[in-house]
């Protein structure tokens, strides 16, 4: 008898309360990811480039800052230099944003999936998702030397410093951890678990905002609580990745639909009640194929890997087999045309 794992997926909560409050800032983008805001200019990563928009413009128009990059995941600003984590190139590069034609120069090579960055003084902290660690360098050094801050993490991606505590999203581990960077031997402790592929994180007041790529939502936790419980901020997004906050405005990038959206945090409703729905996918995990039940009609689908890359697409009917034998082992997300999202594991 086959073992069938039935995934209960939260698809949409109260759409009006939790989604209609968002405003499109920029659309038609190519898999937007990490972001950083300086003055009125919002810089953001796309698949092969860094772009920017003026957030004060009535209709912000993206302009290319630098191109010919390899999957930039995150960016961080230090003076006039914008540092770029190029995931596919396994390196960190930088550009001078005041230059007429910025050109990327290499800062660090031979990394292992650089995915998140921030500055603490002259120290650039960055995650290496594939190596499971957070590292740092002094960017003022003639030859920067990499120092590991904490290791043994499960796909560290987003990072943010709050006081002396470095908060880290672990995309494969489905959790947020933290380390005290002033400790002699920094050790990661779990803050909240049970998240669905958390990526970008941002902080305001006592609240840590989390982009849950796998659940198509932004959640938040109160970091002053002993055992923080995630609450929904906005749902019904399409693979959120990057987050940044400017005053009361939460900016978020949704990689699959190619948008940057904005949410006024002051307008959040406090009485949103989730509307749960379920869908069946089996077998899960599976080495060869998956099937779904509960479809009333044939649906278009796309399969994304943990990085948000589209690896399969087509259409599927109820009980029809979707062959995944050519995919690499790991976690994936099946997104249907009707808005349903299901996580599965390829053995």
Structure notes:
It is a single chain. The chain is an all-beta fold. The chain has two domains: 22-267, TolB, C-terminal domain (Neuraminidase), CATH 2.120.10; 280-346, Immunoglobulin-like (Sandwich), CATH 2.60.40. 1% of the residues lie in helices and 50% in strands. The protein is built from one helix and 31 strands. The chain has one helix spanning 15-19; strands at residues 23-26, 35-38, 41-45, 50-54, 63-66, 72-78, 81-86, 91-96, 105-108, 114-120, 123-128, 133-138, 147-150, 156-162, 165-170, 175-180, 189-192, 198-204, 207-212, 217-222, 231-235, 240-246, 249-254, 259-264, 280-282, 289-293, 299-305, 310-316, 321-323, 330-336, 341-346. The strands form eight sheets. It has a four-stranded antiparallel sheet with strand order 1-24-23-22, with no helix packed on it. Strands 2-3-4-5 form a four-stranded antiparallel sheet, with no helix packed on it. It has a four-stranded antiparallel sheet with strand order 6-7-8-9, with no helix packed on it. The protein starts with 14 loop residues before the first helix and ends with a strand.
